UniProtKB/TrEMBL annotation:
Family to which this protein belongs: Belongs to the binding-protein-dependent transport system permease family. HisMQ subfamily.
Gene Ontology MF terms: L-cystine transmembrane transporter activity
Origin: domain of life: Bacteria
Organism per entry: Pseudomonas matsuisoli
Transmembrane helix found in the keyword field: yes
NCBIfam families registered for this protein in UniProt: HEQRo_perm_3TM (TIGR01726)
Transmembrane residue ranges: 20-49, 61-82, 94-113, 192-214
Name of the molecule in the record: Amino acid ABC transporter permease
Domain ABC transmembrane type-1: 23-211
Major subcellular location class: membrane
Membrane-related topology note: Multi-pass membrane protein
GO terms under cellular component: ATP-binding cassette (ABC) transporter complex
Keyword Coiled coil found: no
Amino acid sequence: MNEGMPAFYGDLFEQSSLIYLGLWATIKLTVVISITGFLLGIVIFFLGLNANATVRRLVEGYKSFFIGTPLVCIIYILYYGLPALGLRLSPFEVLVLGFTLNVGAYNAGYLLTAYNGLDKSQLEAAVAQGFKSLQVYAYIILPQLLKSSTPALTNQVIYNLKDSSIAFLVQYPEFFARMQELAAGNFDFFRAYLFAAIVYLILTTVIFLFAQYIERRNHWPGRR
């Protein structure tokens, strides 16, 4: 066992540049899908408040489909299915599209939960004062929802980071893919995957601590 340690760390050092690039690719993907999923979630939530029953049913159908369907299935449909329709996307584009559709559904659900806890009298007062629906949404509803939904939205970013590890399935050279290549080269799967787990743990801890800092700095209502 001790004989394997120098070989593993030697390979880790030799492939450090590729592993670094893989880590950067993971962070890049996580940041992009967190932003696009967040923005789509806001749009989906807003459409869910539409007075038109058909629009609301479509929104519920969208959320049910993407929340109820495994993410890897969505990614495979886009990666292997779209070329059959004449549309070819790069692995990164497939991942951004698939993750965005999935994450947007979850974020819309978080916002809806927070919305159900709002004091609706303030919304009625705003309408009585002549606010239009879009103004009520932008100036009254959304700011409060973002504050109360911060823990859930932050957790979603952490999920995005961890879920990005499936990106290797569509040939995207992210961190976990690089660690698999390292493990396949020296057959030291235990240390390779343990190292990957520690790196993911460090990244998720950074996200968690940053979220706590933002909450304390802005004194989110209902939060310590």
